[in-house]
Amino acid sequence: MLLRGGTSKGAYFLAEDLPSDPVERDDLMLRIMGSPDPAQIDGLGGAHPLTSKVAIVSRSERPDVDIDYLFLQIGVESPTVSDAQTCGNLLAGVGPFAVERGLVAPAGERTTVRIHLVNTGDIATATFPTPAGRVDYTGDASIDGVPGSAAPIRIEVSGGGRLLPTGNVADEVDGHRVTLVENGMPVVLLRADEFGLTGQESPAELEGRAELTAAIEDIRLAAGPLMGLGDVTEASVPKMFLLSPPRSGGAISTRAFIPSRVHTSIGMLMAASVAAGIRIPGSVGWDIASPPAGGPDGIEHPTGTFPARVAVSRDDDGTWTATSSSLRTARKIFDGVVFPRPPDRTPR
């Protein structure tokens, strides 16, 4: 099934329909999405990281959740398949997909599904309309980065670990002061003005600055091991954020490298991580942020503002933790059979 989830689009599969061997599965996903190819002309991918995504869903064996959700980021120009991160955008479609495929029975006018995010260990709760026992995708909820409106999907995520992976409010990485945060998504917070930027540049303008993209990538590669991610050369995490003062009444303005392209909006878990990070005194961005006392924190991005609701707390031992909730939408685009590209038989 092809669904738009949040501001991304991806292919959703039942785990039982795919090879159990990860190597075989990943090869199949590359052939289904049409990678490696900058146009992904021979597959379902949309020639951008935001549209080259896969969700694999199954009933969970855990007693406290309904569904296991494994996310795969499929490389566009490279033959890579990464499970190093999850995706909060595709998460919006997991509950509806589970009902559509009969993994979860609808429960009246609204159905709540407990979801185990396999990539990170976090637990999410998604609630969405199911009148007359069917998922209803129509509604008046709108999110920046998606035209029109759709049914509201409420998602709450409880983190499974420390908010600050290094235990430090700020670190120095490759000569830059950074804050390393993981509230569902590993992110690195940086000041845009350190790079001679206003923070209001367009994604195309930022992508076109070779020295800037190289500097951001150097910081990302150095930050990966510090965040417990190991060698991230072939990974799409951590996500890199340039922060600047808000311009449109939000809490902070952002530009996100994901990592080689610049996001035209922002993902749900990225926004949750940024919102949590700027609420910690002394963090990068804390001094230029304007989070409201009661929330939500408006995370400004190139095409609008994401309202992120986070609760940040500090334990007696000094460890910072956070929980988050968001309103998302999703839409079923296509339900059918995909025919993978045949295995490559080009002589070598």
Description:
- The chain is an alpha+beta fold and 348 residues long.
- The chain has two domains: 2-160 and 329-334, Diaminopimelate Epimerase, Chain A, domain 1; 171-318, Diaminopimelate Epimerase, Chain A, domain 1 (Roll), CATH 3.10.310.
- The protein has helices at residues 22-33, 88-100, 203-207, 210-226, 268-277; strands at residues 2-5, 8-14, 53-59, 67-74, 81-82, 110-117, 123-129, 153-158, 171-173, 176-182, 186-191, 239-244, 252-257, 297-301, 304-314, 320-328, 330-334.
- β12 and β13 (252-257) form a beta hairpin.
- The longest helix has 17 residues, at 210-226.
How would the blueprint of this fold be written?
Blueprint: E1 2-5, E2 8-14, H1 22-33, E3 53-59, E4 67-74, E5 81-82, H2 88-100, E6 110-117, E7 123-129, E8 153-158, E9 171-173, E10 176-182, E11 186-191, H3 203-207, H4 210-226, E12 239-244, E13 252-257, H5 268-277, E14 297-301, E15 304-314, E16 320-328, E17 330-334
Parallel strand pairs: 2-3, 4-6, 11-12, 13-14
Antiparallel strand pairs: 1-2, 1-17, 3-4, 4-5, 6-7, 7-8, 8-16, 9-10, 10-11, 12-13, 14-15, 15-16
GO molecular function, one term: isomerase activity
InterPro entries: OMA_tautomer-like, PrpF-like
Keywords: Isomerase
